[in-house]
Amino acid sequence: MSDYTPDPRRWKALAVTLTAGFMTLLDVSIVNVALPSIQRGIGAGAGTVQWVVSGYALTFGLVLVSGGRLGDAIGRRRMFLIALAAFVATSALSGAAPNDVVLVVGRLLQGCAAGLLTPQNSGLIQDLFRGAERGRAFGMFGAVVGISTAIGPVLGGVILALFGEQDGWRWVFYVNVPIGAVAFILAMRLVPAKAGRRTELRSEIDFAGILLLGLAVLAVLLPLVESEQDGLRRLWWLFPAALIPGVAFVWWEHRVVRHERSPLIDIRLFTSTPGYASGAALGAVYFSGFAGIWLVFALFFQQGLGYSPLQSGLSVTPFALGSAVSAPLAGRLVPRWGRKLTVTGLSLVITGIGVVALLAWRDPAANASLVLAAPLLVAGIGGGMVVAPNTTLTLECVPTRMAGVAGGALQTGQRIGTAIGTAVLAGVYRLMVTATHGNYPASLAIAMLCSAGFVLIALALGAGELRARRAQRSAERLQDVTYAAPSE
Question: Quick one: which of 164, 73, 56, 172 has its CA closest to 115?
């Protein structure tokens, strides 16, 4: 790190790249509230329209690791600009789609562009920042991840209210075009050209690894994104089938390393990089509980209580507000508090979600949005203390040359966790609605308890990592005393 010279434009560059990253993550959830409008506007069936959401999530998750590796190999600035241009173009294509087929194709391509762009953010933070500044930068990144996921339904409802139900859904996509164009121009000026390194694709990119990992991730994600269309029952066999390309991928990556070539993912990242494997597992499990609740809340408020999309989105804004306040602060405190931040944050999330479940069980239908606001705020404050610190601690020992692929792998776990959580929690909610003959509050309570269960597992992982770090520090102190003794 002795050759590190802070770039004077680094904070401005971060603001630009995070704006683009915000758009890509926002598009994961913003479209949910627009699905009825899309059905009316294009006349598509429910199964086809579901792929407007599922297709984006699928291709997003498929290319994250490959996008990170491309950024490591050919330069993060170049990869960021290419992916951002593609995201703007595919957003325009989706907005202008004349029929459902073009819209689904546009969303699949848009997901690819988002997956190529997103890992450049964590890679650029690794390149441009060091020490406490890196914690602050990841705090801002964590705020973007948390807020974009939570605020998507709100912005979607606002856009539909402004532009109308018939064609308002088109502006859900069109809004990316001017923002993305401005971000592209600013990135050309502010993101350092030296970010990342440029090499020959043929010698650096592990195409066989990309194919094998893509097949494994596809086999896991496809049944989950098709869960609305009975995908878990029809495609369950893909889960065990994923083991074949998964095992082959691990074998191939070891072989690539032995032959001293560049792997897609150096498996030693998980086995020899302190904190990476446990942090990645914690993030995936946490996102299963955290990201899965938004569809459940949308179903509860809109179908159960008859709220409009905008009212439904506004009802969950306390969580986004809590995350917006706590994430930047948590980023500053990472060097001092370390894993204690994520353990504290996860405890707050469990408390907030648990209180939501308790209040929902008591049937607060008359003023549900007000009754649930305080516990959602507490959960949001806790959530802001999880994503950013966990990202910082997971990537802190990763070599800069692997920052892109490490960030991509971390976020692939988060996307898989999101898919699992959404399928499980929404499935539990619908099952309970049927079993209780339309008791929506009780169904929400059970779904929230399932969410709390996922977060409790993440808390156990965080507590285990905290104990391991404390034991390591104690061993290092003991070793220092042992070495110092002869000279005293």
Answer: 56
Nearest residue to 124 via CA among 207, 20, 23: 20
3-state SS class at 29: helix
Between CA 392 and CA 196 the distance in angstroms is: 19
Task: Please report how many Cα atoms fall inside a 13 Å half-sphere around the Cα of residue 319, on the Cβ side.
Answer: 29
Question: Rounded mean pLDDT of the chain?
Answer: 83
Whether residue 329 has pLDDT greater than 80: yes
Taking residues 193-212, report their average pLDDT.
64
DSSP designation for 304 = I
Which pLDDT does position 129 carry in this prediction?
84
Global pTM value: 0.80
Rounded-to-integer distance, Cα 128 and Cα 124, Å = 6
For position 292, what pLDDT does the model report?
A: 78
Identify the CA nearest to 221 among candidates 208, 238, 234.
238
Q: Is the dihedral of CA 212, 215, 220, 221 positive or negative?
A: positive
Euclidean distance between CA atoms 177 and 280, whole angstroms: 32
Give the burial class of 397: count Cβ atoms within 10 A of its Cβ; 0-12 exposed, 13-18 middle, 19 or more buried. Answer: middle
Q: Over the Cα atoms of the chain, what is R_g?
A: 22
**Sequence-separated (6 or more) residues with CB below 8 Å from residue 406:** 68, 122, 269, 273, 276, 395, 398
CA angle 174, 415, 12 (to 5 degrees): 55
DSSP 3-state assignment of 230?
coil
Q: Letter for the amino acid at 387?
A: V
Q: 439: which DSSP letter?
A: -
CB atoms within 10 A of CB 96: 13
Read off the pLDDT band of 228 (50, 70, 90): low
Q: Report the distance separating Cα 418 and Cα 424, nearest Å.
A: 10
| Structural contact between residues 201 and 74, judged by C-beta atoms closer than 8 angstroms | yes
If phi > 0 it is left, if psi is from -120 to 50 it is alpha, else beta; for residue 43 that is: left
- Nearest alpha-carbon partner for 157 in 393, 327, 316, 336: 316
Separation CA 125–CA 14 (nearest Å): 8
